[in-house]
Amino acid sequence: MKRKTTLCRGKKAEKAQGGKIWLRPARLGDYAFALTLYLEGAEKHLSKIGQWNRPRILLKFRQGYKLAPASIICVGEKPIGWIQVAHFVDHMHLRQLHLIREFRGQGIGTRLIKELLQCADALGKPVTLDVMHGNPARLLYLRLGFRQKSQNAATRQMIWRLPRG
């Protein structure tokens, strides 16, 4: 039996898009898959700005990759990406969202982020994230209502605040 997970704690997971795309909890055997996707994106974007340092990036990944908040994005039984969301008392933080190349640009990331924002709205919490300079996902985040709050040499820190009503 498949154990499904969700981006929102306490919310029962549902199959999306006719049951084709779903999340499952990350397992120990998913580490290499997650690392490969992470390094692919990090090298591409950090090399453009002169910040690529493989040993430093590997250490950062080892320190930041946690099974509990990570989910594997699947189509059928095939893993196509992973997402990691941290839940804090006063906010949620989208730590990672990676898709394999052939599944990018199909609205999967948009749907997952919208689900996260709905959850955050229901909980009354803002959502934060960091995006590497040069990453085109920044435009998606802006379109979904995130705003830049600060930046450093490698990333922009962004926040989505609850709609005021």
Primary descriptors:
165 residues, alpha+beta, Aminopeptidase, 7-stranded mixed beta sheet, 4 helices, 32% helix, globular
Number of domains: 1
CATH architecture: 3-Layer(aba) Sandwich
Distance N to C terminus? 42 Å
Number of strands: 7
Protein topology:
Layout: E1 21-25, H1 31-48, H2 54-64, E2 70-75, E3 78-87, E4 92-99, H3 108-123, E5 127-132, H4 137-143, E6 147-151, E7 155-160
Helix pairs in contact: 1-2
Q: What would your notes on this structure say?
A:
With 165 residues, the protein is of the alpha+beta class. The protein has a single domain, classed as Aminopeptidase. The chain has four helices and seven strands, in the order βααβββαβαββ. It has helices at 31-48, 54-64, 108-123, 137-143, and strands spanning 21-25, 70-75, 78-87, 92-99, 127-132, 147-151, 155-160. Strands 1-2-3-4-5-7-6 form a seven-stranded mixed β-sheet, sandwiched between helices. β6 and β7 (155-160) form a beta hairpin. α1 (31-48) crosses α2. The radius of gyration is 15 Å and the shape is globular. Residues 12-19 have low confidence and may be disordered.
